[in-house]
Amino acid sequence: MGLQWSYETPFSTKYGQQSQFDPEATDPLTGRRGAIVHGKGNLANRDLNNCQPRLGLAWNFRPRAVFPSSFGMYTVDLMTNSAGQNFEEYNATANVQQLPGDPRHAFLLSQGPAQVRFNTAADGSVPFQGTNYSGRNASYFDPKMRMPYVSMWSAGFQVQLSKTWVGEVIYQGSSGVGLLNNWDMNVVPLDISTNPTVLNQVFAAVQNYKPFTQFGAIQGMVRPNAVQPAEQMVVDDYTVGSRFPLASQNSYFNVGALAYPSAFTAGTMGRNVVESPGLQWTQLSLSKTIAVKERLRFTVRWDCNNPTKQPQLADPGGSYNLQALAQFGRFNGIGRGSFSDIGPARMHHVIVGRFEW
User: What is the pLDDT of residues 59-88, one digit of tens each?
Assistant: First the structure.
């Protein structure tokens, strides 16, 4: 049994130069609701409830058989998505672009853009310059942020087959709780209208219909419609066929299970509804320990990864375009993960000798 406690200090900087989006503050540039503020102190409250128990049990229920099991909880560091997160307006930014919906050029190459003058505030921040706010981004860090954690457990059987051989079967599982992701909060509501005239106006100037029109980049991807259950989206008994060229491969996905949604509607496909092919990564290991003297032992160990030379295909192409399906469901490379050189269709041998005293 064991117990670990972890504490990660809330996000802050030495001189308090950090940014936080406040949906209720007034933007000094536009006077609209929602602004980047530069408050001092921590961006979130302290999270002190991070106890992580570790349990282990080994039951010797037969002279040559053991039932080992374990359970543990491990917190995950918060980190940030990029080096510039929550530092907006500490890097001077200007956007030379026409107003949303205006297709005319912003300037002539022969003349160049107009001179941009940045105004530095007393706290060192530099407000955004420009009239089109699609390039003005902001970061929001949850003031009630708590550290996510992962629970891991295992159970299995170990059987002594002979003096020098042991057989083992083990199950390992894990589950994440409160894991983090980065979502765009400033998107056009899906139910903004059902009137085609209004929807065409939104399409022509998306920026003007976002919740906070003075912030945010335009997102242009949509989800397709799922016209068949998720388990029918992957081809049964799939085989790659000819790997090269790419277009000669068999599609991993059933193209007939997908279709475009109607205009101005969101697709019905959820997130992470299908899985890539599983990994078939065989590993072999043999070791021998020789007693040289009473306090000196020599151990030689041989490890072999992927003795069957099975390639581990990368994730298949997932961009659905009915007019260009050459890469959809095709595998354009190998390699998923980095442990033991997973990926290439090659065998990997390792021989290690070690003295112990």
Answer: 999 999 999 999 999 998 887 767 778 888
Task: Compute the half-sphere exposure of residue 351: CA atoms within 13 Å on the CB side of its CA.
Answer: 0
Cβ atoms of 332 and 317 within 8 Å: the answer is: yes
Name residue, tokens 């039951």.
59
User: Cβ distance 190 to 88 under 8 Å?
Assistant: no
Q: How many residues are recorded in the chain? A: 357
Alpha-carbon distance values, 226 to 258, 315, 328 (Å):
5, 20, 15
Q: Which residues, 6 or more positions from 28, have their beta carbon under 8 angstroms from its beta carbon? A: 35, 127
pLDDT > 70 in the chain, percent: 92
User: Tell me: the pLDDT tens digits for 90-135?
Assistant: 888 777 878 877 888 888 888 888 888 888 888 888 888 888 888 8
User: Can you give the three-state secondary structure of the chain, one letter per residue?
Assistant: CEEEECCCCCCCCCCCCCCEEEEEEECCCCCCEEEEECCCCCCCCCCCCCEEEEEEEEEEEECCEEEEEEEEEEECCCCCCCCCCCCCCCCCCEECCCCCCCCCCCCCCCCCCCCCCCCCCCCCCCCCEECCHHHCCCCCCCCCCCCCEEEEEEEEEEEECCCCCEEEEEEEEEEEECCCCCCCCCCCCCCCCCCHHHHHHHHHCHHHHCCCCCCCCCCCCCCCEECCCHHHCECCCCCCECCCCHHHECCCECHHHEECCCCCCCCCCCCCCCCCCCCCCCEEEEEEEEEEECCEEEEEEEEEECCCCCCCECCCCCCCCCCCCCCCCCCCCECCCCHHHCCCCCCEEEEEEEEEC
Report pTM. 0.61
Show the tokens assigned to 271.
Answer: 């997130």
Task: Measure the CA–CA gap between 249 and 42, rounded to whole angstroms.
Answer: 53
